[in-house]
Amino acid sequence: MRPGSMAGPSSMPRLLQILSMPRAVPAGVVAGLLLLISGWSCRVQSPYPRDATDAALFGPVAMRIHPIFTQIKDWTGDDRPDGIEALIELQDQFGDPTKASGRVIFELYEYRPYDPDIRGRRVVNPWIGDLSTLESQRQRWNRTSRTYGFQLAYDGIRPDRPYVLTATFELNAGGRFFDRIILEPTQPKAKEPRGVQPEQPEPAGRAEQPVAPATATTGPSTQ
């Protein structure tokens, strides 16, 4: 049919059929689009290496255990505490949250309020959290709080007792940070039944046996 001419009665059904058919995209065009998207994605995911200036400006200078969101938690939904949800925040020299690679060692102690060293007896073996791989960084990083999150599993934790939680961040590039907080009780202390002797502290001078640290953050070691 010539440009400008009108479709006759015989050609109208064919024209409507052509217009109603979905337009097929040539395979070559699809392949080109996929290559273009793939190339753009690779450019986005490949970071530029930091030089000495970037490291000096934006490297971590301080660390803290987040005092508000680090709490005894029940993350299985059975109304019983499963352990401690600990959030670690790193800050650069501008006071902004930043990231770093390395490992975090958590230790939990009884609380001694009237002692120069508030850390009492260590109640469980250490937890060790790895932050040296891309996968672990993605798994641990919380974009809302701008912190690293760790679930420190410990079935024997008591929500009616205070504890001292410490964290040591050992950087892969060298150096370390340390912080500690007091975990306040989240429930009132249970009353001792009549006729039951209260729990006695260990005799003074009794040294704690050395214990090998755990190698996973999902729960304390049983070694």
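Second entry:
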Amino acid sequence: MRDGAESDIPEILIAHQEDPEMHVLLGDERTPSGAELGRRAEGERGARIAGVGATLTILELGSDECRGQIYIHHIDWDRARAELGVWVAPQARGRGLARDALALVACWLVRDCGIERVALVTAMHNLPMRHAGRAAGFREQGVLRAHLRERGRRVDAALLSLVRSDLEDRCNTGA
């Protein structure tokens, strides 16, 4: 993984083109344009410095091409918690990239950043995300009824989380 960059935009646009429904699962009303992705990339550094979010690009070994991204958002430093979101390009799915990225970032947040609880919130019907989360060590906690908005209607969300003690063996947190 590496920090997200403007150079990722072509691969992001291709991923959206190959999976026309991806924007829905990411909470966007429509597929983002190159200009919108550029504005997001420009704001990324400020968000990271302010401690309110970060975007990391998922890579495969030996490549610098964007295979997906993981978002750290809804960071609450006072309560030591954060949420993650992830997507993987259609041509790179099924290789465990989302699972590995979720596990790696969760360990980093807990071990090095002082976060005590990391959560995933995704649509109930997003089975690949739920599976990747469970494979990364997240536990399903329940359903948030009518929590998300998709195509103008409310949909239920699955809540998955892990806490410092869940990661004790996995990333040597010293819990």
